[in-house]
Amino acid sequence: MAQVEFRDRHDAGRALAKALAAWRGVPEVVVLALPRGGVPVAWEVAQALEAPLDVLVVRKLGFPGQEELAMGAIGPGGVRVMSDIPRMWPVSDAEVEKVVEREQAELVRREQLYRGERAPLALAGRVAILVDDGLATGASMHAAALAVRAMQPRRIVVAVPVASREAVQLLNTVADEVVCVRVPEPFRAVGLWYEDFGQTSDEEVRGLLTSDA
User: Fold this and answer.
1) What pLDDT, on a 0 to 100 scale, did the predictor assign at position 88?
2) What digits encode the pLDDT tens for the residues 187-201?
3) Taking a C-beta distance cutoff of 8 angstroms, is the pair 156, 184 a contact?
4) What is the pLDDT of residue 210?
5) Measured between alpha carbons, how far is 25 from 205 in angstroms, rounded to an integer?
6) Is it true that the peptide bond before 36 is cis, omega within 30 degrees of 0?
7) Would you tell me which CATH number, out of the four given (3.40.50.300, 1.20.1740.10, 3.20.19.10, 3.40.50.2020), belongs to the domain 9-57+118-209?
8) CA separation (Å) from 54 to 12, 15, 44, 46, 58?
């Protein structure tokens, strides 16, 4: 299979919106972005579906010494999801709690930064579409889906432009539906499927969340 690349996150969001077209104009739909990289993708989805946009802040728990490798993730409401990695490469409880404490503080900071005084959107009885720019392990989205499930939505849809087969399988266990534009084999990394995968800034996130354009 030839490699399919998105120009940037906005291009990926437009492609993802086409895959979600059945939800356009449905009053119960809410689009929830995982910041930071998921926000430009989700903004395009929300515009196309004519749905409100909010953020759902989750934090990856990076393996000590290899922070890009997820040993788990945390989400709102005290949700914590752990992967199989700590069993393969043992980590002490003290090391895990140190990482959790650091990431919990960052979660709170980002929620305050991105949302300000605005209250989170109510999700009870609604269709929550959770959007990120891609899924490698799926740990962060797993935590997000569990956090959202506790808010009693009618349906949870996980939607991403690109994901590994393993991540899709994982998310199918906690979401009602998983929508993914591409599930490449081999997957390798999310960033390889984007021409421009530069870091999304806090300023861009705040701008998109307050934009009515």
Assistant:
1) 66
2) 989 999 999 999 999
3) no
4) 87
5) 24
6) yes
7) 3.40.50.2020
8) 18, 20, 13, 9, 13
